[in-house]
Amino acid sequence: MEDQNLYFVFVGNKLPKYAYYSILLAEKYSNMNICLIGNRSLREHLKFEIPVRFIQLEDFYDNQEFDLVKNKFNIDTDFRNGLWRYSLERFFILEQFMKF
To answer: Can you give the pTM of this predicted structure?
Structure first.
């Protein structure tokens, strides 16, 4: 059976402003269930008028593997509040989520 969910992954304690709009657009046009994977502390700040399934990272994610790899890349951590670091980490999160 095909997964009819659309997953968003955000790392941190605050959802970026653009993320709200991305999720609202996805709900409107994708015809899929919206799932948001993020830190437990993020859940407290979520205010959506649409159904969004929240999955907390702490239930499945172990960042040890990512911590070993992240220093092997020349990542500008100041660029756009860590855009490249978090982009890379999302791949590790998604891999572990799929195993979970």
So the answer is: 0.83
